[in-house]
Amino acid sequence: MSPTLAEVITALERAYPPALAESWDAIGLVCGDRAEPVRSVLVCVDPVESTVDEAVELGADLVLAHHPLLLRGVHGVPADDPKGSLVHKLIRAGSALYCAHTNADSADPGVSDALADALGLIGTSPLDAKPGEPMDALTVFVPAAHAPRVLDALTEAGAGRFDGYSHGAWTVDGTGQFMPLEGSNPVLGSVGELHKEPETRIETVLPRSRRTAVVEALRSAHPYEVPAFDLHEMAALPSTKGLGRVGELPEPEPFSAFVRRVADALPATAWGVRAAGDPERMIKRVAVCGGAGDSMLAAATRSGADAYVTADLRHHPADEHLAKGPRMPALVDVSHWASEWPWCEQAAGVIRAAFGGTVAVHVSTRRTDPWTLAVSDSD
Question: Are 285 and 303 within 8 A, CB to CB?
Answer without folding.
Answer: yes
